[in-house]
Specification:
Radius of gyration: 18 Å
CATH class: Mainly Alpha
Structural class: mainly alpha
CATH topology: Methane Monooxygenase Hydroxylase, Chain G, domain 1
Distance between the termini: 30 Å
Order of helices and strands: HHHHHH
Strand content: under 5%
Amino acid sequence: MAFGVKKEDEFFGLLRDVATTIKEASQEYVEVFREFPDSITRIPRLKVYETNCDEQVSAVMKKLYSSFITPFDREDISALALALDDIMDYMETTAARLELFNVDGIRAEAVEMAELTVIAVNDMYDMIDHLSEFHKEGIVMDKASAIGRVEDQADEVYRTALRTLFHDDELSGKMSTAWLRIFDRMEHCVNSVDHAAAVVRTVVMKSA
């Protein structure tokens, strides 16, 4: 531990590391969808990010169970770290499905949902970046609320995506099923960002 750094401050740094990895990965994620199918060779890069994220979350857990002093409840730190990990997992597995399901094109709603994911992840990063001041900085709750609004937008796009999908007579039944599963995963991805925000909202409310 560096001189002058409080033990509880280390947790914020570790969580910020996780958030940084997810933010970087989200840029790769959205480019995979924007450029697909030309971007298919970029999909494995998300697995690298996912592995890095797992290691960073593991570091949070090791620190959690070896520390007597924590900045907020241990259960909340654990829940937040795991919620962040879920975001990364959903991005990686969603992008992988494009290749696994042998998708040969892209749908506009998929690009839109990926772009909304990036917006939500950027808000998540800002929320985590200011988390050390959660008891006195309004930006933490502002960003948590902003994520909720993005999740609402994503829900609308998701409904449009399904409506359009099942009215597309040119799409085979097999491909319709593939896209249904991809869209479901994309929705879960955005929801996972909102879940991380919900954990943070709980932390803030407990300190009120």
